[in-house]
């Protein structure tokens, strides 16, 4: 039986050595990353067989076996921010191993639910042509509305929000520094969570224009999934919006 959330005092620090209770909570898009984004991403990529090594820029770079896909944990050297939050992960793909030029980039800050990143990385790993898209933008919106999100009234073909108006996904002008192989394009998908209007964002994500819409759709579908997620740490800014489905003491 679901009950209103009455969490312990939330914290942005790492979990203490003493065991904390685990909460199964909804909605996923406001559950945060459990202060374990890097660990969960590393587990996913290791499970997919991607190789990892440190770079000269003090970042950790994961590369797929075919060397067409990459994920870089760059929190310590983020060149820019999204919504005032430092970029933590950059995912990219290229068409040819002989070229250093990547086709597209996707950027994620801390706080993004790691389940959504797991799903988009798994989908990226499975596709035969990681740098090429085949679906129209509508695929992203359909992935969201199928999970109960609603299209924004003034932009029904390019934006959707969760029923509580706390998270948004939209196709729009991108901020600076979002690198893409096609300089002519200026529209890309952006996603963010703002549990309280006007307060700091919980997380942000930005996809450069050439990111295949089907990959963004995988991210969107996972983000909007109603399935409860396990958390030891609950984001304070979203506490009033979360519901505990089960607690493991």
Explained architecture:
The protein contains four helices and 15 strands. It is of the alpha+beta class. A hairpin with a 5-residue loop joins strand 3 and strand 4. Helix 1 packs parallel to helix 2 and helix 2 packs antiparallel against helix 4. The protein is globular, with a radius of gyration of 18 Å.
Q: What are the salient characteristics of this protein?
A:
single chain, 249 residues, alpha+beta, globular
How would you summarize this macromolecular structure in one to three sentences?
The chain has 249 residues and is α+β, with helices and mostly antiparallel strands. The protein has helices spanning 37-47, 114-126, 138-145, 213-223; strands spanning 3-4, 22-26, 51-54, 60-63, 69-73, 81-82, 85-93, 104-109, 150-152, 155-161, 167-173, 187-193, 203-207, 229-231, 243-248.
Topology:
Layout: E1 3-4, E2 22-26, H1 37-47, E3 51-54, E4 60-63, E5 69-73, E6 81-82, E7 85-93, E8 104-109, H2 114-126, H3 138-145, E9 150-152, E10 155-161, E11 167-173, E12 187-193, E13 203-207, H4 213-223, E14 229-231, E15 243-248
Antiparallel strand pairs: 1-15, 2-14, 2-15, 3-4, 4-5, 5-7, 6-7, 7-8, 8-13, 9-10, 10-11, 11-12, 12-13
Strand tally: 15
Low-pLDDT runs of 5+ residues are: 1-18
| End-to-end distance | 16 Å
Q: Can you tell me the overall shape? A: globular
What can be said about the biggest beta sheet? 11 strands, antiparallel
Please report the number of helical segments. 4
Class from secondary-structure proportions: alpha+beta
Helix content: 10-25%
Strand content: 25-35%
Mean pLDDT: 90
- Cα gyration radius (Å): 18 Å
In sequence order, what are the helices and strands, one letter per element? EEHEEEEEEHHEEEEEHEE
């Amino acid at each position: 039986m679901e009950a209103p959330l009455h969490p312990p005092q939330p914290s942005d620090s790492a979990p203490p050595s003493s065991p904390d209770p685990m909460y199964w909570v909804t909605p996923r898009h406001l559950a945060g990353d459990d202060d374990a984004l890097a660990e969960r991403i590393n587990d996913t990529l290791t499970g997919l067989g991607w190789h990892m090594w440190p770079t000269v820029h003090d970042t950790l770079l994961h590369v797929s076996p075919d060397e067409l896909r990459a994920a870089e944990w760059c929190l310590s050297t983020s060149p820019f921010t999204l919504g005032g939050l430092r970029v933590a992960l950059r995912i990219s793909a290229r068409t040819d191993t002989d070229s250093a030029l990547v086709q597209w980039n996707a950027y994620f800050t801390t706080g993004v639910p790691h389940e959504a990143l797991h799903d988009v990385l798994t989908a990226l790993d499975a596709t035969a042509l990681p740098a090429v898209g085949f679906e129209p933008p509508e695929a992203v919106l359909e992935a969201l509305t199928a999970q109960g999100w609603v299209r924004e009234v003034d932009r029904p073909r390019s934006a959707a929000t969760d029923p509580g108006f706390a998270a948004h996904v939209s196709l729009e002008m991108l901020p600076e520094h979002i690198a893409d192989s096609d300089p002519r394009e200026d529209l890309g998908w952006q996603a963010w969570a703002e549990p309280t209007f006007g307060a700091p964002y919980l997380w942000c994500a930005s996809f450069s224009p050439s990111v295949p819409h089907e990959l963004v759709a995988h991210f969107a579908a996972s983000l909007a999934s109603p399935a409860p997620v396990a958390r030891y740490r609950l984001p304070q800014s979203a506490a009033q919006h979360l519901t505990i489905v089960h607690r493991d003491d």
